[in-house]
Amino acid sequence: MSKKEVSPFHLFEYRGHPYLLNIEKMAAHPVSTELLPILHKVGEPQIRLPAAQEEILRSWDLIRECKEKDTPVAQMEPIPITYMYLFLTQSCNLRCIYCYGDGGNYGTGGSMDISTARQAVDWLIGKAGKMKKIYLGFFGGEPFINFPLMKATVAYASRKAQEAHKEVEFFVTTNATLLDEEKIAFIQEHRLSVQISFDGPKEIQDAQRPYANGQGSYDSIVPKIKKLLALAPKVSGHAVLWGDTDPQLVKATLQDLGLTSLSLSPASHSLFPAESEKKQSIRKTQRQLRTLEQEAEDWSHHIRDRDQDTLRSLKASNGGYGIYSGILALLHHRHKYHFCGVGRKMVGVSVTGDIYPCHRFVGNEAYKLGHVSEEAFNRADYLQSSLYSQANCASCFARYYCAGGCLHDHLSSSGSPDVPAEEICRLRRRELELAAVIAANLSSDDQAFLINEHIIPPQPCPLDF
């Protein structure tokens, strides 16, 4: 879409009341019905807004200038790589029905050796440049299958980071099947951040995440999760929504287990043809949309009641996207240009040492960026914001909220990294609209309450670096 077709605002109704989202300022406002005819005609030269409403659309002149001329993008220094997902093994003892990696049989298969792991650590430290902190994650398959390599890599990375005057943080994504006293002690000792993949109630977990022999996994995993949480309470949970699974039911189950920091996401299609053919029509978002409507009601209700405990719970279960993220983006007027660090700040490294834009692309040769033993590293395609390369995103009112979305998700859904999945776009757009309703109706006392209770952080000073 051409720049002339990009609107500076989004006008919508919620329960009979009109609201305006100032896209360029990332700000939300309630609108009087008397102003609606004027807003619908905004942009025509003869239209003059009432003085009280001029602030709402002050960005229009700036938008018009941007439409009339192209502004060159300043050249930036190379962006340091600070996050690495290290695939210790592709083997997995579960057979999740939505797995986009064919149970570990994608790409080369197999497990990483110590030489490759050390090369990967050295590569990360080198690519981090002047950055003082790096993040090394263990992934799979199920990474604890190769626990000896995890221990050796943590020891090596800790020593090498210290020599380079850097700090290294470790994280691991696990299905929790292999957690025992030794592994939990190791997690504690080295302060590993743990994310547990777990899909909810017994009937859902057993159906979606069975063992390789077909046996359900719920009963064997739950005691291990509880044992870990008793010693390391700051553990996050991630659930995959398959079909029309009820997100609220899943959230409640994970919270009852003690996993207070949660993320939920719809299942993705696979980039591997054999797997993609097996899994069609796996994503239904109608129930997720209904859940968003309820979540917005919950936020409004509990803000009115000053129920800080419930609000903190809503915040913790936000998972990167949701009503809370939208409220924060609007109150802080955030402009997001990249969905994540894919290929920019983050890479995934296969068991053979091949480098990919992120962990989700590992094993797909078309997306290989280099190897940990080589200096050459081609990531040019990932440095530019998707907002400039994806026509659908450039004209979307939620463009500065989702920043184009997950490239792997686009590719697996539409066949192109430049074409987002419409069902995910629908979720993101509605999240922002509902967040705009809440943000637009917050009084100064409401905002002070949210800040004082550490539910919403204060807006950062623009001079803070």
From TrEMBL:
Pfam families: Radical_SAM. Its cofactor is [4Fe-4S] cluster. Residues 275-302 form a coiled coil. Residues 76-302 form the Radical SAM core domain. Keywords: 4Fe-4S, Coiled coil, Iron, Iron-sulfur, Metal-binding, S-adenosyl-L-methionine. InterPro entries: 4Fe4S-binding_SPASM_dom, Aldolase_TIM, CHP04064_rSAM, MoaA_NifB_PqqE_Fe-S-bd_CS, rSAM, rSAM_sf, Sulphatase_maturase_rSAM. The keyword Zinc does not apply. CDD domains: Radical_SAM. GO terms for molecular function: 4 iron, 4 sulfur cluster binding; metal ion binding; oxidoreductase activity. This is Radical SAM core domain-containing protein. It comes from bioreactor metagenome. The lineage of its organism: unclassified sequences, metagenomes, ecological metagenomes.
